[in-house]
Amino acid sequence: MMIQLKNIKLTNKLIITYILLTIIPMTLLGYIAYSQYTKSIEEEVGRYVPKLLKQANQNIENEMSKLEDLPDLLYSSSDIMTVLRDSGYQSQSELLQDQFVVKNFLARTYLNNNSEILGAFLLSKNRLFASSRVAYSGFHLTENPFPYGEDFDLEGNMQILPPNGVDLTFEGHPPYLLLMKQVTDFDNRKTLGTLFLAVKVTFIEKILKDLDEQNNAVMWLMNEHGQVIYHTDASKIGTVLEETDEYPLLNGSFRTTLHGKRTLISVSESKTHHWVLVHQIPLKYLTGKIDLVRNAIILIFIILAVVTVVISIFLAWTVTRPIHTLSRLMKQVESGNFQVDIPIQSQDEVGMLARSFHSMITKIRELIQKNYHIELRQKNAELYALQSQINPHFMYNTLETISMAVEDGESEMVVDMVTLLGRMLRFSLGNKDRILPISEELLHIKDYLRIQKFRFEERLSFQIRENIDSTSYYTPKFVLQPVVENAIKYGLEKRRGIFIEIDVQQEEQDIVLLVRDNGPGITTETLERLHMLLHSDPMTGRDSGFGIINVHARVAMMFGDSYGLQIHSVEGQGTEVIIRIPMIAQKEAAQFLNGGDMREDNGHH
């Protein structure tokens, strides 16, 4: 499989890479984002609705508390209490007179003052006093479905009968609750009768109406036995829902599947009456708008994918054509022809690469003429440094940060990052000189840290202190970046934030570059391995996988074994890297660039 991939043309590789790095991750990210967002909405609704149900339950309890106080109004009428205490009549007219008095009281006290009450019924000593708003049937002294009268003891409490608990029906069949409370003579603690109030359940409907403005949810109120007291589907009032026995909780929300649809069910139990209020809504109604956005994004994504694939094919062809030309010229150089003419004049990275290649050929010719063995080894080290100058992950992350800033409309940030990245590229690809003023090396590392600061924000902070005239002394290129890269990479893997200090100072006839960080430090085993590599032959450390070893190898080969890197680290406290180089003024730098050997001039160090 790997051999087949290696044989694929570069153009195809670029297109495949584009698809793997953009389209597929975007698709996965989009799917994950949609799933997580949908899940978060479900969880948010699952937390929010039970709070509303709890409040609705409280409101229902408040209304029920008001209704429970209504029977006590009987005690405010001495005429009613007199009728209830008296059970003997001398004539039918006296009975009719009492019925008239009680019926008027019931109508005036309960029906006229509360539109929710359908009817009021008072039974006392085999007498029925009734007043209703509409015609009714099923409520008589005979054929009663439950015991009435003074012999039925409710211990002074109100009992609520469910809709199918009695045969009482009203004209139009409105759903109702029947409240039953005994009337007690407080003088002798005897029961005088039982008051029944038929109350419409519309007050429950009004309370629950605000919970479902779109009428997408199903809600009902049931007692602890599963008998429905109120339901948005009136036909189910009075029925028993057995599936509620399988609910995993009575306060909160859970997801389930009903009739093939994923549904969110929220439940809240009343503390006073132990009634259970249920809110049931299919999840598709919660994510309906998200689905529309998702479909629109998918359509836009497909269009953009097609357009960008076409563009990528064109760009891949544009990139690979000069590379093919450069590859052909490289084969000629490989065969020993160092007098090739490079026709590539573009100003992009390939053009820079072509000019760098031409510069490399020129320098190789000079190196062969002067000192083949020493200078060729030095060139190999420099080429290795050039290959490591710009980390692909750094480029990808920087471009990703720029892309996100463009999407967020942060134009000023984009301009700053592009400016910094352009300056870094010019610095990295401009490999004419092997050494340069320390100020330019510091400017490069400052640009690198500022770009990383854009990416990591508060997690990264740094400070650069110059205790010498950095414009007057020289240093090899790229001695700081690999060290700082290591500090950021390993520091932020285990720490929330990291602070990096860079000090440039003079020690006798040497320049010392110190890089400190407060990261996790280096383990003893890794530190021993690094020390072993630092004390080995500089050229053998090039392929060790540590960028700092390459820095040490280049410094040691340029200036001698007295110079290079030292690493001090305490695990859990931080790391300090010391880069020691000789003091190279402008005169010595010119001599070095003209072919001199600093190892000879600085041997006394």
Report on the architecture of this protein.
With 605 residues, the chain is α+β, with helices and mostly antiparallel strands. It contains 17 helices and 19 strands. The strands form 5 sheets. A 5-stranded antiparallel beta sheet has the order 2-1-7-6-4. Strands 9-8-12-11-10 form a 5-stranded antiparallel beta sheet. The chain has a 5-stranded mixed beta sheet with strand order 14-16-17-19-18. The two termini are 54 Å apart. The model is unreliable at 145-151 and 541-545 (pLDDT under 50).
Itemize the secondary structure elements and their pairings.
Blueprint: H1 2-6, H2 10-68, H3 78-85, H4 92-111, E1 117-124, E2 127-132, E3 136-137, E4 159-161, E5 169-170, E6 176-185, E7 190-200, H5 202-209, E8 218-222, E9 228-231, E10 252-258, E11 261-269, E12 276-282, H6 283-286, H7 288-334, H8 349-370, H9 372-387, H10 392-407, H11 411-429, E13 435-437, H12 438-456, E14 460-466, E15 474-476, H13 481-494, E16 498-507, E17 510-517, H14 524-534, H15 547-559, E18 564-570, E19 574-582, H16 586-593, H17 598-601
Parallel strand pairs: 14-16
Antiparallel strand pairs: 1-2, 1-7, 3-5, 4-6, 6-7, 8-9, 8-12, 10-11, 11-12, 13-15, 16-17, 17-19, 18-19
Helix pairs in contact: 2-5, 2-7, 7-8, 8-9, 9-15, 10-11, 11-12
Number of helices: 17
Kindly provide the radius of gyration, computed on alpha-carbon positions and rounded to a whole number of angstroms: 44 Å
What's the total number of strands?
19
Largest sheet: 5 strands, antiparallel
β content, as a range?
A: 15-25%
Beginning-to-end CA distance, first to last residue: 54 Å
Morphology call: elongated
**Structural class by sheet pairing and helices:** alpha+beta
Strands of the biggest beta sheet: in what spatial order? 2-1-7-6-4
Flag low-confidence runs.
Answer: 145-151, 541-545
Helix content: 40-55%
* Average of per-residue pLDDT values: 79
